[in-house]
């Protein structure tokens, strides 16, 4: 008994076939060094609220020895991925402790998450538009490798995993090839701990075998550890230890051959079923205490010449080492120790983290460089989308300038002129010789009407004209009585002494369709102006002072703007900011969601990239795009369509860029808050109209009820719009409060949005 017994683990030679493989001397000595790669104690984790929690991990204990393969098995939804994400520092336990490679995940200097861990998530989690080489370069840089190291490793992985040409785009690879690339990414930096979440799902048997072969290979020297989940229970025979998980606990944590022998089963699936039934009967995870009696049988039946040398500290230990009160430990003399010592009370072996010294070399700058290159490459690869991103603001400006602010033209006016004769129902045009003695003043008035705005349509009687308006054929009906001229002359001559009939007959009667306020007001304005011009003409012809026709208010040269203000000039500043703000929202609102849904964000977190670094890289990338968009918007608005800009163009540009930045940050908030892309789109679109309506872009906020006006002031676009309007239309400098309030408000919003995004991202990261 004193002679050394070689431990045995099932070999990798055939997938699903239990072939025993003696451990190397080196490996077994490593196991005996009591090194733990991962140690989990009393782990509790739930999702959902405290009132309605979904308990996923309940008092779970796990020990993974260094230099071993640990197969994590269990039914779908039992909590495997959750456990792994806690191990890699993606999520935090509610209670309990986790030690990984001698440190606590997420703590400074632990290297986890970070380069000490290689993680292959369940999803493919690759950038489809990247080639295999670009994918490897990106992840290599993230892990602080230099390009020549990456190239060397890439060549090895291409050969080893039988990958196609390194220049093939990931999206054009088959599902199996993509999985292999994803596996290669996890192996890229040769991590100490490899965590593989179902790497063999949907993979053909040959490839599965080669994956397992490699895992066995890399753990051989005892320095690398692998935790792997799989639904193909039988393939896990090749692991050194198996953790059978159910309802958030381990039913057993044991070497596969021991499990098979102990339960007298020929397949691990049967063991799992047996244990699950047992757990069901017991109503918990406590295993059968009598099971230890089978252990001697198990060990006796094991192998032809070997017995199982299991040590508590190796991680390849007795039945349910951490779950039961029974501990199977074989002493140096080969005696099995059944002492009822609960392993759950055993603390994790805390070692110093020797390899963390070089963790600090792995700088934020390197990661940000990789993230920036990745973001720009993604943009470049989607060049069609990029062109659209730049064409969109130009299109919006062109459409705005062409469609908004112009005076309506060709407005039909139904005219009934009882003074003008009809011959055979055909209108007899008015004579054009208008002298002072001209008898037909209604014709003269009509002649003065601005024909580009108003199109005159003549009707024989008032009734048919009004019906035309009712049918929508004209915007108004204008009626002159049959003795309009005489009555008007008498009215002018008699003045205040005019009788009722004279006043009535000299009136130009207009019945307008006022359903469209803009058109109604324009018609009123034009008809009144026409009357002013008409009376001026007459007075001039009759050698009278034509100024008598003027309304005695004189509008001098305006202090700001012109006497004929354009609606375009009023709306343009708000429209510039709205376009830049919401384009930036559109650019960023789904940026993180897409990465999150594709599992890429998870991969980045585990690689040790922080939320701040991710946000910063996105801000930088989108900022470049946004500057281009801002330039195009301002060039088209100011240079091409000659929208008035009285102020300092440099300050105008700065404010516009800041608003774009503000929109980007708002987009990041949406992206961080929303789980699904469609929710992000809904939120972005849903915020567009309220912001547009309440920010004084299309209507002065002075027209709003007081409360709404107050609310409006605190929106990101309101003060900025007022500021830009003041600069563009009044030419005010930055020193005016109206101007600098816009800057202050924008900067405050940027900081607020960035803070919210960071907090939400950190919370979601766990
Ligand atoms: N982010 C989350 N929010 C709420 N519940 C979650 C979340 N992630 C997982 N769950 C729930 O936790 C439980 C365990 O999920 P987990 O993904 O860990 O299981 P799993 O064993 O990995 O499953 P599978 O083998 O199918 O991948 C499931 O009921 C799942 O619905």
From TrEMBL:
<dbReference type="Pfam" id="PF12698">
    <property type="entry name" value="ABC2_membrane_3"/>
</dbReference>
<dbReference type="InterPro" id="IPR017871">
    <property type="entry name" value="ABC_transporter-like_CS"/>
</dbReference>
<keyword id="KW-0067">ATP-binding</keyword>
<feature type="transmembrane region" description="Helical">
    <location>
        <begin position="623"/>
        <end position="643"/>
    </location>
</feature>
<feature type="domain" description="ABC transmembrane type-2">
    <location>
        <begin position="535"/>
        <end position="764"/>
    </location>
</feature>
<dbReference type="InterPro" id="IPR013525">
    <property type="entry name" value="ABC2_TM"/>
</dbReference>
<feature type="transmembrane region" description="Helical">
    <location>
        <begin position="570"/>
        <end position="594"/>
    </location>
</feature>
<keyword id="KW-0812">Transmembrane</keyword>
<dbReference type="GO" id="GO:0140359">
    <property type="term" value="F:ABC-type transporter activity"/>
</dbReference>
<dbReference type="InterPro" id="IPR000412">
    <property type="entry name" value="ABC_2_transport"/>
</dbReference>
<feature type="transmembrane region" description="Helical">
    <location>
        <begin position="383"/>
        <end position="405"/>
    </location>
</feature>
<dbReference type="Pfam" id="PF00005">
    <property type="entry name" value="ABC_tran"/>
</dbReference>
<feature type="transmembrane region" description="Helical">
    <location>
        <begin position="649"/>
        <end position="673"/>
    </location>
</feature>
<dbReference type="GO" id="GO:0043190">
    <property type="term" value="C:ATP-binding cassette (ABC) transporter complex"/>
</dbReference>
<dbReference type="InterPro" id="IPR027417">
    <property type="entry name" value="P-loop_NTPase"/>
</dbReference>
<dbReference type="GO" id="GO:0016887">
    <property type="term" value="F:ATP hydrolysis activity"/>
</dbReference>
<dbReference type="InterPro" id="IPR003439">
    <property type="entry name" value="ABC_transporter-like_ATP-bd"/>
</dbReference>
<protein>
    <recommendedName>
        <fullName>ABC transporter G family member 20</fullName>
    </recommendedName>
</protein>
<feature type="domain" description="ABC transporter">
    <location>
        <begin position="38"/>
        <end position="272"/>
    </location>
</feature>
<keyword id="KW-1133">Transmembrane helix</keyword>
<keyword id="KW-0547">Nucleotide-binding</keyword>
<dbReference type="InterPro" id="IPR003593">
    <property type="entry name" value="AAA+_ATPase"/>
</dbReference>
<feature type="transmembrane region" description="Helical">
    <location>
        <begin position="680"/>
        <end position="701"/>
    </location>
</feature>
<feature type="transmembrane region" description="Helical">
    <location>
        <begin position="739"/>
        <end position="761"/>
    </location>
</feature>
<keyword id="KW-0472">Membrane</keyword>
<dbReference type="GO" id="GO:0005524">
    <property type="term" value="F:ATP binding"/>
</dbReference>
<dbReference type="InterPro" id="IPR047817">
    <property type="entry name" value="ABC2_TM_bact-type"/>
</dbReference>
<feature type="transmembrane region" description="Helical">
    <location>
        <begin position="707"/>
        <end position="727"/>
    </location>
</feature>
